[in-house]
Amino acid sequence: MLKKIAPFLLLAIFISVAGTIIKNDPLKMKYPVTRKTDTVDTYFGTKVPDPYRWLEDDRSAETGEWVKAENKVTFDYLATIPFREKLKERLTKIWNFAKVTAPFKKGKNYFFYKNDGIQNQSVLYVQEGLNGNPRVLLDPNTLAADGTASLGGLSISKNGKYLGYSINRAGSDWSEIFAMEIESGKKLSDEIKWVKFSDIAWKGDGFYYSAYDAPKGGSELSNKNEYHKVFYHKIGDVQSKDALIYEDKKNPLRNFSAGITEDEKILLLYGSESTSGTSLSVKELDKPNSEFISLVDNFDNNYTVIHNEGNKLYVVTDNGAPKYQLLEIDIHGKPEYENWKKVIPESSDLLESVSVANGKFVAKYLKDVTSRLYVFDMNGKKENEIKLPGVCKIDGFDSDKDDSLAFFTYKTFTAPDVVYKYNMVTSKMTIWFKPEVDFKSEDYETKQVFYASKDGTKIPMFITYKKGLILDGTNPCFLFGYGGFNSYYSPEFRIDRALFLENGGVYAIPGLRGGGDYGEDWHKAGTKCQKQNVFDDFIAAAEYLIKEKYTSSSKLAIHGRSNGGLLVGAVMTQRPDLAKVAIPTVGVMDMLRFHKFTIGWAWTSDYGSSDNKDEFNCIIKYSPLHNIKEVEYPATLVTTGDHDDRVVPAHSFKFIATLQEKQKGSNPVLVRIDTNAGHGAGKPTSKQIEEYADIWSFVFYNLGMKY
Fold first, then answer.
1. 314 within some domain
2. How confident is the model at residue 22 (pLDDT cuts 50, 70, 90)?
3. Which CATH number is 553's domain given?
4. Residue 326 within a domain
5. Average pLDDT in the 453-476 region?
6. Is residue 611 a part of any domain in this protein?
7. Is residue 70 part of a domain?
8. Marked catalytic residue, from 562, 605, 623, 652
9. Could you write out the DSSP letters of every residue in 19-85?
10. Active-site residue 679, yes or no?
11. What is the domain range of residue 647?
């Protein structure tokens, strides 16, 4: 991002960004003075200034110097926190334990990821059978000295001969696909570039993938992504020989991904215009020159094909069922939706996913944001419930359709993930892997409460704390939220949160509208012109914690990532009195221009667009950047990465420049800009520890906690 520049120009830039002291902090920090321009946009007659528009050019020398100046202020401040290094040492110690994922089977082999403790990236292992000796198949730590090359998606060929895998670098969404012989561990010559938002779907000795045309040089991390295409690559060929399978020249803002049934006879083509809703077409590969059959030609609902029996497809969908159902499609009969057959109808709980194991359907449900597992026969008759050890979240249920053994990950707020093995025949559940961590999990507990939001809607919230907690309003509390894109946060162990818990902290996560906690209706209730519901739900969560004396405003920190960064930005500008500390991470802060960068156009299904008059009138009321006033805001640490091409760092840059300009009072408002880091996925352990150590140092210090 930074370029070499002439010394006289460097001096001019330094003067422009670092000229004035804002004396509003006890430490007398010198905030950089960010150059302002007279840029103004007009939306339906409303003039909206954008004086820091120039910060959107993250390749310019001036932006580079601004980043350096801001980081210097931030890291100088963090260096004054007396327990910062001790806190980092403790976090590293807690983090340093072996972590293993649930294994999945392909052919004769089992595959799983393992991290010995604080390796920057987890390593892919393979072993023959359950009792075989595991060996390293792919170690991403060897690909970059600083650990910033990460393993993205992977797929095993049906014959078990090849591994296809994608590598992301420096946190970018861009990836490259490579191939390897599993038996020998030999990396092949295949290399696929400019891949983004892609699966790897094997057919014979080749695979389907999705990619864009090569972007113009220097614009890779900010330009709008257009004209997604699906290709087929045969092992041994150069990329230029890959066959174009599908493109849409009329609709540049659509994404396409390819899947394939296990028998490799049906190609599945999913299309999308946003983060919600898919089209679905199929192509019979065992019929020469067959055309795609369109099963769904709109984007009103979501569809996932989970299995096939010949020409019959089994699809999980919210079409006609906001909490999802499993349907059967006969593509040789009448493939229209009205002829689809119900196999597992919608219930009162959210149907999260369906797996096939030992000739049975295993359905994973979410009841009040906690997992349930049920077994059905192939006709949809419920046979039994798989009893789980306690309140938890289940990740995956990996099995072969003809295999009696399945593996899943058991997650809670108070202990690291445990991997279980389940026998479909005997119904016996045993622990396959249980980690040992330097944290006394047994000393902590989680309770779930339900509170009323502003409009009376009941919202669920998990609260985790040390047993024996005294409710006197003096406890430090960390409130985390998201509320968007049909996603949700259920029980999970976060290593960095353990640091807060063992120092007397209360950790709370509400199930905000906009998420997928209760299905598509819950999601829609927090989108577009109903987005304010999300902020109201979060504010009500904080007020509940204060009212019930878990904490007080002076002891409360609020945090969110990405869409959750938007949440924190909106809440702190609407209610600057609510919390003492705010941590908006990689947040969407400029709601008027988010759709102009990379994949931002796909978010309009949740946010709406400033190009639409009615939606603009809603968005302008909460857009964090445009609602900063001259008042005292909480102690704020904005965090972002210079390689974030999901939510470009300009969002955070413009937000903090405005916040520093208008902040009144004594609370520091800072930005921490990570280098060679993106939106979060694939971030090396070393960078995670450094980031969380700084975040928690800032939180502890400003909440008056001692360490």
1. no
2. very low
3. 3.40.50.1820
4. no
5. 98
6. yes
7. yes
8. 562
9. ------STT------------EEEETTEEEE-TTGGGG-TTSHHHHHHHHHHHHHHHHHHHT-TTHH
10. yes
11. 7-92+439-702
